[in-house]
Amino acid sequence: MTETLFLQFATAILFIPLISFLVLIFFGKKLSDKSAIVGSGLIGSTLLLSLIIFFSKINYFHNQTFEYTFTWVDFGYYDSKINLGIMIDNMTAIMLVVVTLVSFLVHLFSISYMKGDIRYSRYFAFLGIFSFSMLGIVLADNFFMIYVFWELVGLSSYLLIGHWYEKTSAANASKKAFIVNRVGDVGMFTGIMILWSTFGTLDFEKIFSLMSLGVIPFESTVWLTAAGLLIFCGAVGKSAQFPLHVWLPDAMEGPTPVSALIHAATMVAAGVYLIARVFPIFTADALIVIAYIGAITAFVSATIAIAQYDIKKVLAYSTVSQLGYMVMSLGVGGFTSGFFHLVTHAAFKAGLFLGSGSVIFAMHHVLHHHNDHHTDPQDIRNMGGLKNKMPITFWTFLIFTLAISGVPLTSGFLSKDDILAGTLAFSDLTGHTIIPIIAFTVAGMTAFYMFRVLILTFMGSHADSHRIDGIHESPWQMTTPLIIFAALSLFFFYSPNPTNASEGWFYSAVVRPETAVPENVSASSIESFEEAVHHNHGKAITLSLLIAGLGILISFATYYWKKISADKILNMFPKTFKFLNMKWYFDELYDKTVVWFTMTTAKVLAWFDFKIIDGLVNGTASVTKSTAFGSGKFDNVVVDGIVNLTAYTFGFFGLIIRTIQTGKVQTYLAFAIVGALMIFFFFN
Amino acid sequence: MTFTVSLNHFIFVSAILFSLGIYAVLTRRNAIMVLMGIELILNSANINFVAFSRYAGMDVNGHLAAIFVIFLAACEAAVALAIVLNIYKQFNTVNVDEVSTMKD
Amino acid sequence: MLNLYDYIFYFFAIVILGSSFVVVFSRNIVHSAFALLFTFFGVAGFYVLLSADFLAITQLLVYVGGILVLLLFGVMLTNNIVNVEIKSGTMQTLPASLIAALIAGLLCGIFYVSNWYLVPTTPELLNNTTAVAIGYAFITTWILPFEVASVVLLVAMIGAVIIARREKAPEVE
Questions:
Q1: Residue in C67, C138, C164 closest to B77 by CB
Q2: What is the pLDDT of residue B100?
């Protein structure tokens, strides 16, 4: 592999999904059922190329960064240029594999999941444009390109969530996702503009190197912090962080494979990827804000997840919670562990969503078979005892659940444990003890609610057992992705030692970049942080094992052995349960504040328009009318007399001069030319 | 003045082309012929641009001006012909002197 | 002494002027349109003589390929095809010929007496292709006119379509 070959492969990876989109959007009708094969095949080829890039990059070009940049617009002045370009470093290589792998497996899964859908080919076309835009974010080497693809991701997510737009809830959910994302993007755009006005370039490398030479926005570290936080706003929107997390659970209205692709593994990870990509520009203050936002998100959504009955809603809130984990980890300085969690989480959460998709698919079919259209196929209270009917789905689901709960021998344990050690180190270094407390609490809650889903769905017996008669395992296109994801959720892909991830390839491939901000506002150094992490490693393992075990135990005691009655607890705290079940009333809060405010402003303005402005206009009109009546008399008699006299005079001359107005354009033009010539002669 | 070609030769040709164009615009009654005259005028201007750019040190800015003229000519031809077609529909003639409702 | 370059120049000058005379003075509009083809072609030849290779190609593409075809369409669509005599009259010939002669004399006089500022060029510069320099100038110093031009072109296209469109489809019995 040479540098050119790397860049050519990367370009091919970027554009093949776009080709898939174009082919399917224009010829989808003709291809009909074959469109799935076209889409999957093209994405599969990008997966192959990504794997080639990944293995040769990690094995042979470990420390090199490949970059290809060209000037797109040269403004000519002040040496300001907008460049476009792609960059391949280890982080990019890993993300390429994550995105193309998940995308390919989701394509495969969708072949049978979406069978018979009225917009079958369009669905695959949209998957293609989504992959294109996501790969664009991953490969971008400058803010401009990342912003363009960022918006494209928003668009394709809108299209995919609203795939079944005949359903009002799906249409609303897609609009909500789009608008809430815009709120974050405004911040991101402002942040990029601050950087542009300071540096006159948008390339990451140039900005970082200028910044480490001491160039900072408006010579003020406050502006630097502000720029970092504004760019973080984009990540808040896209990665569904508090307070903009409300769109992600609603986005579950889209088809389940879409949820696996977009809302579990890739698009929501884009925010985390952005934070990691621009990590050097964050000051210590900005990182603390990021850590707290992540922690709050993780906690809030974990509490909500406990009280949900819809299997996809639980998974959605668990995603938000895990994203909060990653953001928190980056905020505390655990760069590698946060990014590591992004990769491991992508595998097991995509697996969880596809597993739930498999269950919903089976439930849907069996309910359809029984002509039962009232039972919700997504409600976990209607499931139970599926273990023997769907063995592959069950066993893979079990592995994913173990991974997300942080049980040893899984990938989730490796990354989660390291994040927890990072939070402990952070509290040691800065004294923010609340962050590790939240982190450990969330770890326990995650174990609890994930096993709740597992037990209620697969174990025990069904309340109404004949309802699930005839339920059977999904076809191979759906189970193969599950098995692959389950394999990827085990530890040995990432590290030879099941208790310590830092011995694996990942930790040598992705290292925390040196900060570019001035020393007096930068976070604690890499060495001191790693020292503290090392110090806290044992403590973190012990505590996290204890807490995860406790969560799993409570879950089994409540839902499997029925030693603790869930209903009794619910009846003891009905208000709390309602509060959690209604998602902390965030939607209602936003309805009552932001939406209400907008609507009221609009109403007030409308009232102002109708009453005051129209009143003024009407008042003016009636005043004018009466004045006009008076002056009309004057006009008719006096003024008209004068005017008529003048008119007669001019009419007389006009009759004479009229003869040269022939109405022919050319005559006028001839006069114009003669005039121009005369001017020339007079002023010469 | 010699017969060996210099800047003057080019711009003389362009001057004659220009006055021919003016003559066509002023005399022809058919609107399309008027358009052709305009094309002649624009072409003569273009020859000037390019000739001056060639004899002033081969500077491409003259070429750019000529390209903009060509593109404007394209716009003009498209819009003008659309208008001529409309006039033809309205008056059933394209003779500009008969289309003189402005006079009345 | 006249060399090959000069002969070619005179050839093209004769083509341009001769065909433009036909354009202007021919009574038959179709003849005029075809003579215009030769004028455009001659101008393109001039561009080649002036080392403007890119412009010469553009001239052929846009004028001969585009504008001339448009004009011919105009002729076809606005004259009754049944009416074989596609003739067009003239008017105000006397004042117009005076004006045209005046302009020609004036311009030639000015050109003759003016002392132009000339810069000698090297053969390399003349033999180089201009496309690279033009392209570069378009996206640097001339980027604003270039973008505006694209918008104008779009507006002209939409405008032409809207103007030429029929308001109502003819009723088919």
A1: C67
A2: 64
Q: Is A257 left (phi over 0), alpha (psi -120 to 50) or beta?
A: alpha
Give the nearest partner residue to A665 out of B27, B96, B104, using CB atoms: B96
Which of C35, C58, C84 is at the close of a domain? C84
For residue A356, the surrounding DSSP H or E stretch is: helix A335-369
> pTM for this structure?
0.65
Residue C26 lies in a domain: yes
Asked if A663 lies within 8 A of B27 by C-beta distance, the reply is: no
SS (H, E, C) C149-166: HHHHHHHHHHHHHHHHCC
Domains present along chain B, CATH in parentheses: 8-91 (1.10.287.3510)
Minimum distance, in Å, between the CA of residue C92 and any CA atom of chain A: 8
Residues of the domain holding C76: 1-84
Is C118 a member of any domain? no
Which of C91, C106, C141 has its CB closest to that of A76? C141
Q: Please state, in angstroms and rounded to a whole number, the distance separating the CA atoms of residues A263 and A258.
A: 7
Report the gap between the CA of A88 and the closest CA in chain C (Å).
28
Residues C12, C65 within the same domain: yes
Max distance between CA atoms of chain B, in angstroms, equals 56
**Per-residue pLDDT tens for B49-67?**
999 998 888 888 899 999 9
| pLDDT tens for each residue of A131-155 | 999 999 999 988 999 999 999 998 9
For a pLDDT cut of 90, what percent of chain B falls above it?
A: 37
Average pLDDT, stretch C107-115?
Answer: 86
A434-465 residue pLDDT tens = 888 888 888 888 888 888 888 888 877 665 66
Would residue B58 be called left, alpha or beta, if left means φ above 0 and alpha means ψ between -120 and 50 degrees? left
In this structure, how many other beta carbons lie within 10 angstroms of the beta carbon of residue A375?
16
Contacts of A666 in chain B (CB under 8 A): 25-27, 34, 96-97
**Residue pLDDT, tens place only, A478-489:** 888 888 888 888
Q: Are residues C71 and C128 in the same domain?
A: no
Query: Looking at chain C, which residue has its C-alpha nearest residue A71?
Result: C139
Does C1 share its domain with C80? yes
CATH of the domain at C3: 1.20.120.1200
Mean pLDDT, residues C16-36: 89
Q: Which of A260, A270, A313 is nearest to A127 (CA)?
A: A260
Yes or no, beta carbons of C121 and B57 under 8 Å apart: yes
Q: Is the model's pLDDT at A32 over the cut of 90?
A: no
* C 76-115 residues inside an 8 A Cβ radius of B: 77-79, 88-93, 95-97, 99-101, 103-104, 107-108, 111-112
- C78/C31 same-domain check: yes
pLDDT, tens only, A323-345: 998 999 988 888 888 888 888 88
Size of interface A-C (CB pairs under 8 A): 25
Kindly state whether residue C150 falls inside one of the protein's structural domains.
Answer: yes
Q: Which of C24, C90, C92 to mutate: most A Cβ within 10 Å?
A: C92
Residue C111 to residues C52, C105, C116: CA-CA distances in angstroms?
Answer: 22, 10, 9
Please tell me the total count of domains within chain C.
2
